[in-house]
Design goal:
105 residues; alpha+beta; globular
Length: 105
C-alpha cells in the first residue's frame, strides 16, 4: 500500500500495480469473448481456424502455452500487432488455462 498525503490530516491509501498503466477512468468489465470465432480478432471469416486440440503434434495443448507466452511478450514490449484486450482472454487462472478451457481457435 502506498499512502498518499493530501492537505491537512487527510490520508488516502491505495494499491498500485506497476505493471498496469495508470488510468483515471473507472474500470469497465472486459467485453465478452465469442469462443466460436477467432479468439484474437473476434471477426467471422472464411479462414480455417486452428485448434491445438486438433493438432497431431505432441503435447497437443502446447499451442495454447505458446500463444499465451507470445501474447504476453508482445504486451510487455508494447508491440501488440492488434488491439487486444488481454482481460477477455483470462477468466481467472491465466490466458493459457482460459484458452484450453474454451478450446479456443
Amino acid at each position: 500500500m502506498n499512502p498518499l498525503s493530501c492537505s491537512g490530516d487527510f490520508v488516502v491509501t491505495m494499491s498500485i500495480d506497476p505493471t498496469q498503466p495508470s488510468t483515471s477512468k473507472q474500470s469497465k468489465p472486459p467485453p465478452s469473448t465469442n469462443w466460436n470465432i477467432c479468439v484474437l480478432c473476434q471477426v467471422v471469416t472464411d479462414e480455417y481456424l486452428q485448434c491445438p486440440f486438433r493438432s497431431t503434434k505432441q503435447p497437443i495443448d502446447r499451442g495454447y502455452a505458446s500463444l499465451a507466452e507470445d501474447i504476453l511478450r508482445f504486451h510487455i514490449l508494447q508491440h501488440m500487432p492488434m488491439d487486444l484486450n488481454l482481460e477477455r482472454l483470462d477468466d481467472v487462472n491465466g490466458i493459457e488455462y482460459t484458452l484450453k478451457a474454451h478450446r479456443a481457435e
